[in-house]
Amino acid sequence: MSADSQTTEDRPDEGAPPEDRWRRALREIVESSSMVVFMAIVASMIIGGVLIIFADEAVRESAAYFFSRPGDTFSAIGDALGSAYSSMFNGAVLNLEASSFAGVIKPLTQTLTMATPLIFAGLGLGIGFRAGLFNIGAQGQLLMGATFGAYIGFAFSLPAGLHLLLAVIGCAVGGALWGFIPGILKAKRGAHEVIVTIMLNYVALYLVAWLLSLDAFQREGSDNPISPFVAETAQYPKILGVQFNLHLGFLLALACAWGAWWLMERSTLGFRLRAVGANPSAARTAGMNIGTATIITMVIAGGLAGLAGSAPVLGTQKFLTDAVAGTLGFDAITVALLGRSRPLGIVLAAILFGGLQASGPSLQVNAGLPVDIVVVIQALIVLFIAAPPLVRAMFRLPAPAHEKEVAA
Amino acid sequence: MTAKGRHLMKNTIRVGAVAAISALALAACASAPEEETSSSATADTGAPAETVDFKACMVSDSGGFDDQSFNQSGYEGLTRAESELGIEIASAESSTEADFGPNIEAQVAAGCDLIITVGFLLSQATVDAALANPDVHFAIIDDLADNDFDGEIDAPNIKPITFETDEASFLAGYAASSVTGGTISTFGGMNIPSVTIFMDGYLAGANYYNDTNSADVKVLGWDGTDGQFTGDFSDQAKGKNVTETFLDQGADIVMPVAGPVGLGAAAAVESAGDAWLIGVDSDWTLTTDYADIIFTSVLKNIGNSVFDTISETIDAGFSTEPYVGTLENEGVGVADFAEGTVSDAVLTELDTIKAGIIDGSISVDLS
Known about the structure:
The complex is a heterodimer of chains A (408) and B (367).
Chain A: H1 3-10, H2 20-30, H3 34-55, H4 57-63, H5 70-92, H6 101-130, H7 138-155, H8 162-189, H9 193-211, H10 248-266, H11 268-278, H12 280-285, H13 290-316, H14 328-338, H15 343-366, H16 372-385, H17 388-395, H18 401-407
Helix pairs in contact in A: 3-16, 3-17, 4-5, 5-15, 6-10, 6-13, 6-14, 6-15, 7-8, 7-9, 7-13, 7-14, 8-9, 8-13, 10-11, 10-13, 10-15, 11-13, 14-15, 14-16
Chain B: H1 2-27, H2 35-39, E1 55-59, H3 70-85, E2 88-92, H4 100-109, E3 114-118, H5 123-132, E4 137-141, E5 158-163, H6 165-179, E6 183-188, H7 193-213, E7 218-220, H8 236-248, E8 253-257, H9 261-272, E9 276-281, H10 284-287, E10 294-300, H11 302-316, E11 323-325, E12 332-334, H12 344-359
Parallel strand pairs in B: 1-2, 1-3, 3-4, 4-5, 5-11, 6-7, 6-8, 8-9, 9-10
Antiparallel strand pairs in B: 10-12
Helix pairs in contact in B: 3-11, 4-5, 6-7, 6-12, 8-9
């Protein structure tokens, strides 16, 4: 960010909302160049590699006598990195050690399966970011979506097709409801969406924990907080046959990505949302209703996050627990930032993260590395994405032209 | 709560990395080992005389192996089996529930002979994997692997490992009742069976004391169906709050069944000065910094059960016979009582009660 961008941004507009600083940070992140994003991934992989080296026992042992026989250390480092990256590849892309064709491509399908909820939730967050809303509530929205969808899935018995449709709609409605609350609170009362969405994550978590203590949400004959199985009529069909986990939800996610692109780039509504995100005061002057735009954005974002909840309950796991959301809602924030809030970018970022997660079992079991390495790499990516000047300085990249235009 | 745990984990890793780098820099000056030892650097030079051709593997639930609770205890059993039995091990932590299936599949593919999964959340994933891989053996901790509730294990190659924890907490409840001024208390992390079984036994033990000694000891925090829960297994501040409330209501002994949340309870008890804490899962005089205020601990020896399951499978072959930890087989038990608290008369009574529970003449169920 250059000096004149500061002065432009700091000049108070009439009636400008007080979160200029948030908006500026958000816009900088969203508009960072693809080169910066790519380099951020490269940088985190390199640092991840350094951590893998230090986490390796053989390296540590041989490093103790580094100055007497450095060759040992280097070969240990080579072994550590080689086994780490090859098990990552075998776990996330193609398993070259498998005997059958299905076994070879299974990791790839697993990566896409893991990417599915991240695509949904990332799209929702991306729309919010571009409309200037820092929605941290994907976790709660996802959980509510999963709850609605799962309940429809296990409590009713309906014909195949219709049942799945209703369950999917249920997921979207549950999430949309959870997005509507912070939306209307911000539109009508100016409550900051960051605070409200974070708090609603907790409300959703404890609500689900409570629901799972009720007989209506528990399996017959068990007191464990675990719901009955979603009926087969409400499950996503597996699109590549039963030996792969990849389910229809992935195609639905791609369809949503196209829908989000159309909404933001081609529709009037999307134009309004983007205008509000770029400069709320100007949008208001142009006659746009900021409150309505906020509510619509949050409902769409929540609905998409809710659909993310359909991936576990209707696709992979097929029942509801209070841990069904894992850390998906937070990972999706990274995905949205990494994808620069654009649908195509989000799909690619989600597949990258899906791959990182899919490589976890293979990393742990075959390379003996802690799964935390994956988390660290993800965290480093966020860190670098959030600091474009740092990445540019590291790789001596010039400040991209379009950011100067924005600043001017 | 998971997210919070993750952040903590990331921080730990960062600090750890810095520490590791400095340690490496300092240690790099040591002299190289002799050629023959360095060539076999990975082989164990120490304890196990022979290596057994057996690979035992473990999958955690989303708590991870550093949860100070059942994942950790289970993992300790696995590593003990590695060092004492000379077997090969592998482990996989699940960060989300979506990892359960892939983690188990990765271990099947890695040639594990026995795969132990931790916790009822992995039940379905374990059953699915067991049905798909009939040649691989499985064991699951804290679950009966019976998801259709017909009383049968859902796959012919799963060994359930469960614990009659209420037998041990019955003794703790009885002993606590004998030393209290009139009110004892307990709370849990969540209202789930693996937690409330501790509280059931504790309450039943106190009721049994009241019946046999015509006393009137009150139990706060659990009435057999509902009670006091903190809602998670991570927030120590809640454990402290709940405990302070109990102490204000006149309780002088508290049993927290909530993993690390219990450390918050311990802090509250310590600052109160005139109260006692009952640890759970492991012996808290050894595993926490609060040895001075620990009345006793209700032991759930998950580590032993894992070790025994592995060693039995190696020696006698795999059996699906459920392992049930009881007072009789020392799968559960109570640790030594704090010195000077329980009278010799009560200690004798406890021995009688323990024998009664083992032979079935005393029921630990809540009547």
